[in-house]
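Backbone shape codes:
===
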Amino acid sequence: MHTLTVSLAERSYPIHIGAGLLDDGRYFSSVLRSRRVMIVTNSVVAPLYLERVLRALQTEGVRADAVVMPDGEAHKDWSTLMTVYDGLLEKRCDRTTALVALGGGVVGDMGGFAAATYQRGIPFVQVPTTLLAQVDSSVGGKTAINHPLGKNMIGAFHQPRMVLADVSTLDTLPDRELRAGLAEVIKYGLIRDPEFFDWIESCLDQILARDPATLIEAISRSCRNKADVVAADETEQGERALLNLGHTFGHAIETGLGYGVWLHGEAVAAGTLMAAELSRRLGWLADAELERIEHVFRRAGLPVHGPDLPTSAYLALMAHDKKVEDGALRLVLLRGIGRAVIHSGASADDIAAAIDARRA
């Protein structure tokens, strides 16, 4: 097992990464303020792992209830969020009750937002069960729901008390979901860790084969990168925005197609190639580097071209991105593998050309 720390002074918290962690209630009891928990999960994860977590909590004398949401990005909205509030209120949960988010990124984001806002904030624990959630969305305290005009536009920063990443949950993860999670793993190598990118290239087959030791290493190195960035810039005033490589283009894909048509990691993969294409057109990324990036995403089974939405639709949706400041779109681009930068000077023509080059 690996344990990392997100260093945020008195709000620091551990990330535990290993196999079989769900069955040990001591992890949970070490961070609880009371013997009361509400588990938020979904209709796919609940039959697989809810009873295991309930048993682990019961061994520590913790009383736990559960809210089971429908599965999928299409349900990351106010209506579904209200069912979480309903469960908290019906069970008379107070401000010391901990909310445990058991599931993938949608569950973690919605559970975290409910925890951030219920009675103005209650303790929160992340138990991610997908690769994407284990390497990215469970760490850092971003919580949100979607709006028809933009992804994750309504939310709050609310740090968890703990992240418990049990890699054995990846045994039941569909191949498509595993590959989608790899988009975020690759991202860390591209933005700040070229040695990790080299490692991903050499170990990609073992990751896809779900070798436990390789998965633990991939998750640990990803989380270490994210933890360092979050510790330096918790609320995304500067460096943390680099973690959004490919996301501005990717969020436009998700919103334009309808939430859930493409998985988040699939959209980020295509969006990353659009960002890399724009970087090449600006003279910052060599042709050979772009080819190397594309090859890794292809080997991972991820899309390297976006859907055939009109370029005008991409640009209009990107204009709603959270990284727009004073009307200027701030994009995360690459000055080489491992060297991401934030750039607001790209022209609309250059952005459109990069989209056209990477559109199916």
